[in-house]
Amino acid sequence: ITRQMRPRLSRGLTQVLAEPMAWNQAPVVVTTLPNGLKVATKETFGETTSAGVFINAGTRDESRETAGAAYLTEQLAFTGTRKRPKDRLAAEVESMGALLDMSAGREQTSYTISMCNKDLKQGVDILTDLVTSCPVGNIAKEKEGILKTMDEIETPTRAVLDDRLHMCAWRDYALGFSGVGPFDGIEGLTEAHLQSFVNANYTAGNMVFA
C-alpha cells in the first residue's frame, strides 16, 4: 500500500527493509501479522495509491490432475463474488476510476488495484473480497467462456517461445507446466480441484499485502 497507510499495529513484528535513498523517499516497512500475513507499506507523495495481494503460488504448485488451476482460479475472480457479483464489481471499480488486474504465473499469483488515495479503503475491501471469497463455485457456468477467451487471445511469439523452452528444461516437473497455455486437462477441472488449490495456497502465511 502506498501513501499514508503505514499500519498502526500493536501486535506483530515490524521491520524497516530499506533506508530512504533520497530526501523524498520513504523506507519500505514490513509488518508480520499474528496470522503470518506480511504487510509491506511505503509512503509516497502522489495522488494515487496502489495495493496488491501477492500469493506465493502458481503453476509450480499444480499437479498433472490440476494443471491450469492457478490460471482458472485467477480468471474466475473476474466473474465476481457472492458479495460483489460480476456487474457490481465492474461498476464499483469503474465508479472509482480504478484499475483492477489479476495475473497468474509459474511461481506467483497477484491481485492488484490502483486508485485515488481517497478510495484506498474501498480498494482494499475489493481485494480482500476477491482473495478470501474466490468464486470457484462459478466454474461450471464460466469455464466455457474463459476457455473461449483463451483461444481468442494471441499470445506474443516471444512469450510462447520462452514458455516452451521452460517446459523443455523442466519437462515433467510442475515448474515446467505451461504459463501461457494451452493447459492440458483444464477442461476437466472441477470445483473440488480449484477449492483444493485455493485451500492449500491462499493462506495468510503464503501471502504478502503491499
Automatic annotation (TrEMBL):
The keyword Hydrolase appears for this protein: yes
Domain Peptidase M16 N-terminal: 38-178
Species name: Alexandrium catenella (Red tide dinoflagellate)
Keyword Glycosyltransferase recorded: no
PANTHER family per UniProt: GH01077P, METALLOPROTEASE
Keywords in alphabetical order: Hydrolase, Metal-binding, Metalloprotease, Protease, Zinc
Gene Ontology BP term (one): proteolysis
Name by which UniProt lists this protein: Peptidase M16 N-terminal domain-containing protein
UniProt-recorded Gene Ontology molecular function terms: metal ion binding; metallopeptidase activity
Segments forming a coiled coil: none
Database matches in InterPro entries: Metalloenz_LuxS/M16 (IPR011249), MPP/UQCRC_Complex (IPR050361), Pept_M16_N (IPR011765)
A GO CC term assigned to this protein in UniProt: mitochondrion
